[in-house]
Amino acid sequence: MTARHVVPAKAATLTRSSPVAGYWRRLVSTMTDRGYGSPPSRGRFPESAVVAKLGLAALVIVVAAALLPAGAAFSQTPFYQVTPGEVAGPPGTLIRSEPMLFAPAGAQAWRILYRSTGLAGEPIAVSGVAIVPPGPPPPEGRPIVAWAHPTTGVVPHCAPSLALFVFQQIQGLRPLIERNAVVVATDYPGLGTAGPHPYLVGVSEGRAVLDSVRVARGLPGAGGGASFAVWGHSQGGQAALYTGLLASSYAPELALVGVAAAAPATDLTTLMGDDFKTTGGKNLTAMTLWSWSRVFGAPIDRVVMPVALPTVDLLATECIESIFDIVERRRTEKPLEQNFLSVPNIAITEPWKTLAQRNTPGVLPRSVPLFLAQGTNDDLVQPAVTRGYFQRQCKAGSRVTLLLMPGVGHGFAGRDAAHAAVNWIGERFAGNPAPSDCNRS
After folding, report:
1. Mean pLDDT throughout 36-63?
2. Does residue 201 sit in the same domain as residue 278?
3. How many domains does the chain have?
4. How far is CA 16 from each of CA 12, 72, 291, rounded to the nearest angstrom?
5. 186 and 110 share a domain?
6. What's residue 164's pLDDT?
7. Mapping DSSP to helix (H, G, I), strand (E, B) and coil, where does residue 389 land?
8. Residue 22's pLDDT is what?
9. Do residues 120 and 195 share a domain?
10. Do the domain assignments include residue 94?
C-alpha cells in the first residue's frame, strides 16, 4: 500500500468572540473529557505537567481545540474528494491513505478512504481511521476490532477522522492495541465524504463497517487476518448490530466472533417517540428528520413547523466532538422547546414510521455472541428498550451478556463499558465459550 500524504486544510477560524475565561473553561472541559486530567481551578496554566504527559505538539492540539468554536473540526481536505474512476472497484478496497500522528501505544495510524456500497447498490467512497499495533503480525494475522462511533453529526465536516481527538474518541483503543488487535473506525457514508450522511440508517452503517474491516486486513502489519469483532456506542451500537446482521451475506470471507454494543438504538419507533420529550432527544430527532428528508425524500415540511426549520438546518451543521459541543447544541436547540413538530407523534406518522421500522435492527443469528451495556440513567436510549432487545435475543437462543451500569447516562455508556467490552472481545478472539445472562433475566 502506498500512503499518499495530503496537507490538511487550515483549521476553522474563530467566529464567535468569547472572554479569556471562556477559553479556559473550554480547555478544562476538553482536557477532562479526553482523559488528560483537569488543570487547577486557579493560577497559572500547568504547562510543564501537560507537556510531560502529551508532548509539546500534542499540547498545541489541546489548546487549539479549546480555542476553536464548538463543533469546529478541521474542514474537509482534498483527501476526501473522489472521482467516479476512483470509486469504481470492489467494495472494501483502498482508494488511498495518509499517515496520522499521535496514535497510542506505539501504533501506526492511517486515515483511510475506501470503497463501499450505497443504499441503491451504487459504489461510494467512505473514510475512516485504522490503527495497527507495532511489531510483526502473527502468522494467522492480527484480530481486527471495528469501532462504530456514536453520533457526531450529519454533514461531511463532522467526520471523526477530522476530529482533533479522534484516538481518544475510540473507546478502549489503547487496551485493544496492547492486546495486539488492529482497530478500524469508519466515519460512515456522508461524513468526511460527500453527504448527506444517512443517519441511523442501519444497512448503510453496517456495510461501511464491514468494508472498513476488509481494508484493515490489508494494511501494513495487519497480517491479513479474517477474524473480527465489532464494538459501538449509541448510533454505533445500532451500526454494530447491523454489522452482525449483514456479515454473513455481505462479507462471507470475514469471521465475526462477536458484537458489542453500548446503549444501542434498537427500537427507532420508541426512540423517536421518546426523544421528542427531552432536550437531547430533540437534537437527535432534528438530525434524523434533516437526514432522512434528504436521503429518502421524506417531506420534512409536513412534520416540522415552518418557524422551526431554520433551527433544524442550523443544528444539522453543528458537530459533536466533546461535551462542550453538546452544551453549545443545547443553546442552538432552545427554540425547538417552544416550536418544533407540527404532528403529535412523529413515530406514528408516515413515511417516518416505516423508515423507523425499516432501520430497527432485528435479532442477530444465534451463532453471533452479543455483549450489551446500558446505563440506568440514560434518558435517550431507555434501559427498558435495551432490556427488551436483550430478552428478544435470549428468546432466539443467543448467548448474551448484559452489563447494567448504575447511575450512568447516555453520553458515558461507551466509555464506562469499554473495559468490560474489551475483555469480552478478547475472550471471543481466544475462542472461549461466550457467557450468557439469559437465565438471570
Report:
1. 32
2. no
3. 3
4. 11, 11, 27
5. yes
6. 87
7. helix
8. 37
9. yes
10. yes
Q: Assess whether 170 and 251 both reside in one domain.
A: yes
Q: Output the domain CATH number for residue 174.
A: 3.40.50.1820
pLDDT, mean of residues 428-436:
97
Q: Are residues 192 and 178 in the same domain?
A: yes
Same-domain check for residues 332 and 210: no
Helix axes 20-33, 323-333, angle to 10 degrees: 120
DSSP string for 60-115: HHHHHHHHSPTT-PPPP-GGG---HHHH-S-TT-EEEEEEES--GGG-EEEEEEEE
Least Cα distance to 410 among 436, 379, 433, 387 occurs for 379
Q: Render pLDDT for 328-352 as a digit per residue (tens, 0 to 9).
A: 888 888 889 889 999 998 989 999 9
Does pTM top 0.70 for this prediction?
A: yes
Q: Would you say residue 9 lies in a domain? A: no
Can you tell me the distance from the alpha carbon of 276 to that of 340, in angstroms, rounded to the nearest whole number? Answer: 9
- The grid coordinates listed for 174 are 489503547
Domain boundary among 330, 357, 384: 357
The model's pLDDT over 87-102, given as tens digits with 9 standing for 90+, comes to 999 999 999 999 999 9
The residue range of the domain holding 92 is 86-266+361-440
High-pLDDT (> 70) share of the chain, %: 81
**Which of 357, 386, 414 is at the close of a domain?**
357
Tell me whether residue 3 is in a domain. Answer: no
Both 225 and 371 in one domain: the answer is yes
User: Is residue 238 located within the same domain as residue 139?
Assistant: yes
Instruction: Tell whether 198 is covered by a domain.
Output: yes
